[in-house]
Amino acid sequence: MLRALVVDDEKLVRKGFISIIDWASLGIVIVGEAGDGAAALEWMKSSEIDLLFTDITMPRMDGFELIRQVRQQFPQVQSVVLTCHHEFDYVQEAMRLGAIDYIVKTLLEVDSSDTVIRRIVERCHWERGKITSSAETASRQASPSAGQAIVFVPRERGEDSGELFRLPLAKGSRLIRLASTGIWLTQPTTSNTAAEIDRELGDRLLAIWRPIMVTGLEGAGSVEEIGRLVEGSTLLNCLFYAPEQTGTLTFAVSELKQRSRLDHGGIVPEHWYTLRWALHTDEWKTMLAEAERLTVEPEAWHAFTGRLGMDWSGLLFATAESHRLLEERERCRTWRDWRDWLGRAASLIRSRMDELAMSREVMGCLIGAVIYMRQHAGDKINQSDVASHVSMSRSYFSQCFAKLAGASFGDTLRTMRIDLAKRLLRETDAPVYEIAERAGFEDDKYFSRVFREYAGLLPSEYRAANR
């Protein structure tokens, strides 16, 4: 007998559905009922079922999410959708998530119910037979799949995972989402080759997902334990720098562990912030080679490029260019994507240099001056100090700096000090007079007046508004 659970938020509809059918004669026993998806999952944690009948539109957790969760947590359970005549668009989505059939509640009658349920029972037995056969085959082959996992990495952010649940290789095995956003993992019940995985996904899904087969996982334990092992490895870093290809990549977990021991932490070297790579061809080539050698992590690239886009808006990039660069970061998924992004940023910086009619050497000095000013905005520095730091005469530095910044040195330094004061007001509880001193202002009354001119609020008002 198949054990079944019925889920519908309308109690009368739920009871009516259960009472209209002679379940026992069709090989089914209704063992429970629930009013929404969340309650159904709680019920399933303590009671075993084979078949789930679920409505789509429900409070707390709808039918779509319930089917998705059941595929992850209880892969042997088959799902059937209970729908109304006007919900056929929903049915397609549910089937894509892994439902095996659907029942139109408004059309279900005593005379026709046996045929509908018998069809579902046959499909359920067929699915269970496939899973059993796969498990027996794997057992006869000394369980080769125990040492293999398949990871699906989206090529774009926000990819829909629904179609992964319908893949034959995921049948009878759990498909879980890793903590890394949008990444899914399954441990198939049978072994697969890269070519077999490619054929199963087809060109369309291969264009959406990057499948990675991880081998050498014998004795790794449950799919959750494998997921933690994969997350703790450098798989994503290896994939990040791997040559772009549409087919399945293969990594041995021992190889990933070895790379993990050699990994330097994936941080961005500080000297890259000087932007010499954007001005000089040889420095550009050196940075690319260094990036691949250090295997800088994707998150570090995201932070590094975000800082560049914001720090140099209005100086090296026009405001619109900066916004566009920051938006383009969200579409970067591989090292090649980031390399192209850096190339576009470098091109914009060189265009700015040409626009100002400056040499690479002078542009590099001005970039160094701005970096130095930001680092020492709270110190007692003046234009002579900064010009000396970048080895330029004071008068020539003043002229070139004004061209780059579109404002005098004094106005620019004052703006940097106000920005520093804003950050200190947001992040610390230091009194205003101390904030003024730490931001490079000798007089707190003068500081308050200047702050109000720039921010439109007194320091105390700004702090209150940003807490």
UniProtKB/TrEMBL annotation:
Response regulatory domain ranges (all copies): 3-120
Protein's UniProt keywords contain Cell wall biogenesis/degradation: no
Family annotation (PROSITE patterns): HTH_ARAC_FAMILY_1, HTH_ARAC_FAMILY_2, RESPONSE_REGULATORY
Keyword field: DNA-binding, Phosphoprotein, Transcription, Transcription regulation
Spans through the membrane: none
InterPro entries to which the protein is assigned, alphabetical: CheY-like_superfamily (IPR011006), Homeodomain-like_sf (IPR009057), HTH_AraC (IPR018060), HTH_AraC-typ_CS (IPR018062), Sig_transdc_resp-reg_receiver (IPR001789), Tscrpt_reg_AraC-type_HTH (IPR020449)
Modified residues (4-aspartylphosphate): 55
Protein's UniProt keywords contain Transcription regulation: yes
Pfam family, one: Response_reg
CDD domains in the cross-refs: REC_YesN-like (cd17536)
PANTHER family reported in the protein's UniProt record: ARAC-FAMILY TRANSCRIPTIONAL REGULATOR, HTH-TYPE TRANSCRIPTIONAL REGULATOR EXSA
Name the record gives this protein: Response regulator
Organism from which the protein derives: Paenibacillus terricola
